[in-house]
Amino acid sequence: MTTPDFSFTLAGQDGQARAGLIATAHGKVPTPTFMAVGTAGTVKAMTADAVRATGAKIVLGNTYHLMLRPTAERVARLGGLHKMMDWPGPILTDSGGFQIMSLAKLRKLEEKGVTFRSHIDGTPYELTPERSTEIQHLLDSTITMQLDECTKFPATHKEAMDSMELSIRWAKRSRDAFVKRPGYGQFGIMQGNVYEDLRRHSAAALVDLDFEGYAIGGLAVGEGQAVMFEVLDYCTDFLPAQKPRYLMGVGTPDDLLGAVARGVDMFDCVMPTRAGRTARAFTSNGIFNMRNARFQDDSRPLDENCTCLCCTRHTRAYLHHLFRCEEMLGPMLLTIHNLTYYQNVMQGARAAILNKEYDAYCADVRGNWQRGPDA
Amino acid sequence: MTTPDFSFTLAGQDGQARAGLIATAHGKVPTPTFMAVGTAGTVKAMTADAVRATGAKIVLGNTYHLMLRPTAERVARLGGLHKMMDWPGPILTDSGGFQIMSLAKLRKLEEKGVTFRSHIDGTPYELTPERSTEIQHLLDSTITMQLDECTKFPATHKEAMDSMELSIRWAKRSRDAFVKRPGYGQFGIMQGNVYEDLRRHSAAALVDLDFEGYAIGGLAVGEGQAVMFEVLDYCTDFLPAQKPRYLMGVGTPDDLLGAVARGVDMFDCVMPTRAGRTARAFTSNGIFNMRNARFQDDSRPLDENCTCLCCTRHTRAYLHHLFRCEEMLGPMLLTIHNLTYYQNVMQGARAAILNKEYDAYCADVRGNWQRGPDA
Hints:
The structure is a homodimer.
Chain A: E1 7-14, E2 17-24, E3 27-31, E4 33-37, H1 48-53, E5 59-61, H2 63-68, H3 72-77, H4 81-84, E6 91-93, H5 97-103, E7 105-109, E8 114-117, E9 124-127, H6 129-139, E10 143-145, H7 157-177, E11 185-190, H8 196-208, E12 213-216, H9 225-235, E13 245-247, H10 253-261, E14 266-268, H11 271-277, E15 280-283, E16 286-289, H12 309-313, H13 316-324, H14 329-354, H15 358-369
Parallel strand pairs in A: 4-5, 4-14, 5-6, 6-10, 10-11, 11-12, 12-13, 13-14
Antiparallel strand pairs in A: 1-2, 2-3, 7-8, 8-9, 15-16
C-alpha cells in the first residue's frame, strides 16, 4: 500500500459550515475537528488509549516544549513523536513561535528569527523558520506549521502590517525548508490582526506558496468573541475552499460552533484539558464547577448524554469528592469527559452539516447549555 | 444464585508458604495477594479499569480518610464504596486507628476509643470499636478490620502487653458490633510487638472470637526486616491454618516474598503507588529511579518481562521525560507498572507454591534484582 497524498475532501456544506475529510500518512481526520493539546508529548492527565477513547483523531504537540525537553533530536532518536507518545495517528505541531513569546525569557525578535532563553533553565536558543521546520521534521509531525509572529492585540494598522509581512517572509522560508513527503503537510498562518485588507493580503501571499492547509492566527488573543467572529466572517473567504482551515488556539464550545458556521475546519485549545484539571466541566447542560458543594450528594452522572468513562461509571458526587481531596483521578476523569464532550460537539456538528441542519443543531446545543446542572 | 459464605480454601503449600483462595460476596481472591491501597476511594493516579488491568483482585480503603471525606453516611447514600469507586470486587477497609495515630491532631486514647481532630479542618471526631465497625458497614466493606491500637516501636514488655490487651478488648467490642452477612468477613488484628508470649496470647484471644481472618499488626513500624521476619517465624503458627493471614502495611517485594515464606497470605502497602508518583520503579531487574539521566536516551521498555501498558507502549526515555517535565502521565504510567509488578510477583509466588518450588522462585526473583537497569 502506498502512502496517500495529504489531501482534504469536502463531504458536505451547509451555509459556510463545512464537513470534510483530511487524509494523511498517519490516518484520516473527519472535520470539523478539535485537536487535543499534547504539550510535551502527552495530553495532560491522559493515557494515549484514553485520548483515543474520546474520539480524538488528531493531537497537537508543542515545538517549544519539545525542543527544550526532551529535544527534537532525542525524539527523532526515539523514533519520532508518534512512537514516543503511543499516538500512531496524525499529529500537528505548532512552530514554537507563540509559546516563545508567551513563556520564554529575554526574547529577541529579528528578521532571521527569535533568540530566547528557556523558561526552565535559562539556556539560550535560536529559532528560525528553517530550524522550526527542521524540528517539526525531526518530531515526524504530520502537519508542520510555519514559523510566524502572532501580532499583539491591540495593534495599529502599521504594526499589524509590519508583523504580517514578517510572517509572510518567514512563511516563504518555512516553505522552502519543508521536506515534502507523501501524506505530510505544512500549513501557512494568516495574520493581519483585525484589518480586513491585511488579512486579504496575508492570505493571498500564503496561497501563492501553495501550503497543504491554512491557519488563521492572531485571534483569541483578547479581542473577544464578537470581534473574532467579525474577522472570521470575511477572512475564511480569502482562503481556498479545497484546503483545510485551522483556527489556532480556539476555544470554548460556543466559539467552535460559531467558527464552524464561518467556515473553519480545525481547532486546538488547552481549554478542555486545563479545565479538567481545575474542576470545570463542559457538559450538554453548560459549564459546572465540580468543587461546588451542590454536587456533594448528586448521584447522577456528570452528563447523562455522554458515554465516556467518567459519565458511565461515576457520579457527580464522586467527582466532587475527588476534587475536594485533590486526588489525581479527579483531573483524569474530568479531562476524559471534557475532551469527549468537545469531540461529541464536533461530531454532532459534522453530522448536522451533512444533513443541512447546522443552524438548528447549534440552536439546540446552545439552548441546552442554559439548562444547568439540575435539568 | 445465593451469595457464597466468606471462606478461605488452601490450594497448596510449600514449606510454610501457602496458596489459597478467599471467596467473598464480591468475588474470589487467589492468595498470596497484594491489595492496592485506595486511600480515599481511589487508588491514586489510577482509574478502576487500570487497577483491574494490573491483575488486582482486591483493594483497600482507608476508614480514616473516608469518614472525613466524603463521610461514611454519604458513601452509603451513594450505594457503597464498590459502586462509588467503580470497583465491584472485594474491598478490605482498615479500622481507622492506624491513621488517626499517624495523621490526626490532638489524639486522645481512652478505653472507650479515640477522640481526635481532623488533619484537614480540625473537626473533632470520636472513633470507638463500635463506630469503626459501623463505618465499615456503611462503606459496604467486604472485609472489615477490628479497631486496634498499633503498639509503638520500640515498646517495653509492659507497654506492649497493656496495648495488646486494649486491642483484645476492642476486638471483642468490634466483633459484637459486626453485622454478619453472607460473603462478608471481619478480621481480628494480632498485636504484641516483638514479644513471643504476647503474640501468642493475642492470637489465642482473637481465635476465641472466631474472626473470618487474622491480621498481623504492629510490624513494619521501624523494627527492620530481620526483626519482622523473626516475629513472623513464630507468630503465623499461632494462627489457624484454615483462615487467611494478613500482614498489614507491608512492604517491599522482598518483604512480601519473605513473609509469604513464613505463611502470610495477604498484604497491603502504599509503596508501589507512592513510589510510582515519585519516579521509583519496581522491576524484575531491581528498583530504578526514573529521574536518573541514564534513562534519557534509553529506548528499552521499563521492564521487558512486563506486559503492562507502560512497558508495552513506552520507553524508559519517555518515562524519564515525563517525570522531568512533571507530567501527570509519569505517575500514572509508573503506578500502573509498579502495581502490575507487585501482582506479577504474587502470581508467580502462587504458581511456585503450587509447584512446590517456592524457594527456587524466590532465589530467581531476588537474583534478577541484582542485575540492574543495564541487564
